[in-house]
């Protein structure tokens, strides 16, 4: 069984995926893959620098994600160009990791653009981590040290909260603190394990 995990920026996807990973669930994380494919010296990183400017690189030659975000989310054309460069490489490596991952107890595919990039077709169920836009702005600006208008531009570019929730099989509310979120995850984990056991019996 493959569970798709998604949510808007700064919703708490990593908090949730780390919880599942600590319980021996294999996590395939599109954010980690996205960092790997643009490692220092990689052809993709060079292509990004050619398109978006050399100042998206740090002094050490690594990707400055904050600068790239501002540059790429300035308009639809720039964002589409970024996706055209990044998504094929991410998708290819993601499929490789899914196929290689042990299927037990189940696999978790964590991707911020799970629905936008139609990765949900690879999943049996979709789990959405949900917070309000106000919480996204507050957490995102504190976590990433970016201006609130830059975070707002990313929120606007992603699928709407309403559409994300409509397409979810399960929703985790991450507004009420970590203990409350963990309790929701624990209940879902038991349900997922139960379904796997029923399928195997």
From TrEMBL:
Is the tRNA processing keyword given for this protein? no
Please give the NCBIfam families that the UniProt record associates with this protein: dephospho-CoA kinase
Q: Which gene encodes it?
A: coaE
Which Gene3D superfamilies does the entry mention? P-loop containing nucleotide triphosphate hydrolases
What are the recorded GO MF terms, alphabetically? ATP binding; dephospho-CoA kinase activity
- Its predominant location is cytoplasm
Q: What is its EC number?
A: 2.7.1.24
List, alphabetically, the Pfam families matched.
Answer: CoaE
Chain residues that bind ATP: 10-15
Keywords tagged on the record: ATP-binding, Coenzyme A biosynthesis, Cytoplasm, Kinase, Nucleotide-binding, Transferase
Per the record, the similarity remark reads:
Belongs to the CoaE family.
Name the chain's protein.
Dephospho-CoA kinase
